[in-house]
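Researcher: Batch entry, complex prediction.
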Amino acid sequence: MNTVTPSQYLPENPREFRNFRAARFDFWSFFFGGLTGLATLLILAILAVILVNITLNGWSAISWHFVSTIPKKDFFNPDTTGILPMIIGTTIRVFVMTLFVIPVGVITAIYLTEYASNTSLVTRIIRAAINNLAGVPSIVFGLFGLGFFINFVGKNLDALLHNPGPVWGQPALIWASLTLAVMTLPVVIVATEESLKAIPPGLREASLALGATKLETIWKIVLPQALPGIMTGGILAVSRAAGEVAPILFTGVAYYMASLPHKVTDQFMDLGYHVFVLSTQSPNIEQTRSILYATVLVLLALTFALNFVAVLIRARVRKQLRSGH
Amino acid sequence: MTDILMPKLSVNDARPAATGGASLIEVQNLSLFYGASKALKNISVTLGEKVVTAFIGPSGCGKSTLLRCFNRMNDLIDNVRIEGAVKIGGHDINNSSVDVIELRKRVGMVFQRSNPFPKSVYENVAYGLRLHGVKAKSELDRIVEQSLRGAALWDEVKDRLHSSALGLSGGQQQRLCIARAIAIKPEIILMDEPASALDPLATARIEELILELKKDFTIVIVTHNMQQAARISDYTAFFYIGELVEYDTTTKIFTNPAKRQTEDYVTGRFG
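Model: Structure tokens for the complex:
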């Protein structure tokens, strides 16, 4: 073996190392850096324009009376109208949707990550189906809801219960919520799957090696860890569903109701649909414009509020997980 | 080639003459396949009770795979098929009548990467106890303290029992995993390179602990660290590409191995 001496690695003239090449302006780095910054700025600008426009035009029509009144027949008149039933309708349909979409989505994600074999044909078909579900236009979900939930499930339920007239077999809060749940299912499944996959396999092994069953391991170790991710899925689902109109068009929303919904089989009024009604059905567009903007503002505020509450709860859960309780 | 590598040990002569305790784990002609590839080749070996047995060998030699046969952790992997038998206390643990939950309760395991649950120190140790039906607070408190003392961790964590286990150092976390394993009073503790991710000081503490634990538990340890095997084990088994090359007292393996290949490995000529 040859003896290696440090001198072999040194240049013959050490001065070579002292001369660095002069820094050069790299045009393409500058160009692409600027491009990405501009794109981001554009998005922020669009968002700002929308928010400022809506706030400026709608703010004047916002009053306690406006948000706390059940309108009489003429809800195009800014002086007498209110949007309480729409606020309540939108809130309830989103809430009922969450009750369905979270359990079904989480259980599906658990099946896919914890039980199903990743390579099997069935799993691949399920995954493809979930991806396709995410790409279906929302009006198609509305038609599906009408055909499946109302005309099939509802009508058969009525027949089964010997109801004299349609109780379940007509547009209703429950069917609108279920339709929205089907629509947002992919979001919850994918978010839950991601959070389940992020849990170190070592934790599952440790639990199983202590003599836990698979169910105990999922219930006591995996799910608590996945909770923030599941909530992220819920937040995304709520954000998407709160402003959707098409899926509820045939499945439960009403043009006008004199009273608030009492049962899940009642129809309901909705902020998003009300925006559509105000902008297309008003006999006097100039007069209605301020409440149209105000309704949009309330819809945005409600969506933000629902998200904000969910984000707060998630932050709390994360903190508890970190502190180990 | 096969003759040199394969000692062709039968059940009886696989057990060193000087085995201390009664035999506890008997492996009989065990082969294990991942799909088509054979990871363990006709292994027969008998491990004694309340002694430390070390499995050594280069990466991929099957030592961890064999360890994981003892608590059936290989069940979790798709496409694993085994032939032959693993008997613990005379019972074939792969028999369909054996409850794998009870098996894992009686054969505990400590993993290479410390994997405490993201719960409090207390809840980590109490986890297994709660699984197996211990509910009374006083009982839980007592066993948690006992286990943490047993894992030489009590003094360091007694004031922070209810804070997160993830705040402990790597060595403390690994001792917590040992405490968690001994809390449910297994008969056997399997250790899969328990100190490989730790610094020398933390490693020394784990080794001391293993020597202490062997009074009450049968320990099987997989290690890459030959000095560690020499320091803590009573018996050593050397594996090479899925085969058991040599199994004897640790002194014999490290001072006067019967096989050339063993000698080459323990003296660091390969591996």
